[in-house]
Design goal:
By secondary structure, the protein is an alpha+beta fold. The chain is built from one helix and three strands. It has one helix at residues 35-56, and strands spanning 8-12, 17-21, 29-32. The protein has a three-stranded antiparallel beta sheet with strand order 1-2-3, covered by helices on one side. The N and C termini lie far apart (31 Å). The relative contact order is 0.22. It comes from Thioalkalivibrio nitratireducens (strain DSM 14787 / UNIQEM 213 / ALEN2). This is HicB-like antitoxin of toxin-antitoxin system domain-containing protein. Residues 12-64 form the HicB-like antitoxin of toxin-antitoxin system domain.
Length: 70
């Protein structure tokens, strides 16, 4: 699956891990001990998020690309 959602990646001192947030998919987050692992985990979580939404008949947001923040 080609992931086209925006990912926000940052280091969490508290968790001692890289954290990935997917702002377009509510509650969709992942982490990993390396940047690469966090991104790979995020891809799996996005796929699971979409699969669950489809199974429950919920709408799946279209990827918008880069989001603008104030």
């Amino acid at each position: 699956m080609s992931i086209k959602y925006e990912l926000i990646v940052y280091w969490s001192e508290e968790e001692q891990a890289f954290v990935v947030e997917v702002p377009e998919l509510p509650g969709c987050m992942a982490d990993g001990s390396s940047y690469e692992e966090a991104i790979a985990n995020a891809q799996r979580v996005i796929e699971d998020w979409i699969d669950t939404a489809q199974r429950l008949g919920r709408p799946i947001p279209e990827p918008k690309g880069r989001l603008m923040y104030a």
